[in-house]
Write a structure and sequence with these properties.
227 residues; alpha/beta; 2 domains; binds 1,6-di-O-phosphono-beta-D-glucopyranose; binds magnesium ion
Length: 227
């Protein structure tokens, strides 16, 4: 395992809680289709693409629709979602995220945003955090969603670093799996019960320091080096 060079951050659930806006928009679509969509159902949408989210929603409602209708519904949901997103301000950046990003950069690590969202560019502009990332790879650039490692491997390639020199911060189990498939250290953001496969789990970026990150890295390196 190489030395640590880059920190890759998921967006929703790590940097900002956009899940609540995805939820109200999807719930409205479900109501229009005539069924209920609960917060528990919404958990299944975290980290997955917009079209896959719609497929899960339709599964919950027991509906099968043709492709043209699905495309129109996904567009409608996105317009609703953006109507909420456009009201966002920098106060919605999750606690500790800005400081941790700055500390990583000051420590010499490159930073990247690695997200399934196609709306990432507008979100980080509104939150005024775009300058904190060397690279942004979003849902417009990747064809395979997590647990496929494509989004993380594209970040590593754009940054010019080896995947094995990267750490990923992720709130979704599929993202932890994707990081590991890509040969990266995976730090879970959330609860250990949901992120059992992560190398370390913290409740949020306010609860991890660069020193703790280095310790997790050294710990992983020694594990990997064991015969
Ligand atoms: P959009 P992440 C993901 O963001 C969300 O968790 C997921 O719920 C959403 O469906 C996906 O982005 C696509 O978002 O509709 O904006 O393209 O966790 O990968 O940062
Ligand atoms: Mg996420």
């Amino acid at each position: 395992m190489s030395g640590l060079s880059a920190c890759l951050f998921d967006l929703d659930g790590v940097i900002v809680d956009t899940a609540k806006y995805h939820f109200v928009a999807w719930r409205q679509i479900a109501h229009e289709l005539g069924f209920e969509f609960t917060e528990q159902n919404n958990e299944r949408l975290k980290g997955v693409s917009r079209m896959r989210s719609l497929e899960i929603l339709l599964e919950v409602g027991g509906l099968a629709l043709d492709t043209a209708t699905k495309v129109a519904l996904a567009e409608k949901k996105n317009a609703l979602y953006l109507s909420y997103v456009m009201q966002m301000t920098p106060t919605e950046v999750l606690p500790g995220a800005v400081d941790f990003l700055k500390n990583c950069r000051q420590s010499g690590y490159k930073t990247a945003l690695a997200t399934a969202s196609r709306n990432a560019a507008v979100i980080i502009e509104l939150l005024k955090i775009a300058p904190l990332f060397d690279v942004v790879v979003d849902g417009n650039r990747v064809t395979h969603t997590k647990p496929d490692p494509e989004v993380f491997l594209t970040c590593a390639s754009d940054l010019g670093v080896s995947p094995t020199a990267c750490v990923v911060f992720e709130d979704a189990e599929a993202g932890i799996e994707a990081a590991h498939v890509g040969g990266m250290l995976a730090i879970g953001i959330g609860s250990p019960a949901n992120l059992a496969k992560a190398d370390l789990v913290v409740p949020g970026l306010s609860k991890i320091s660069v020193e703790q990150l280095r310790a997790a890295w050294d710990n992983k390196k020694s594990t990997v080096a064991k015969p």
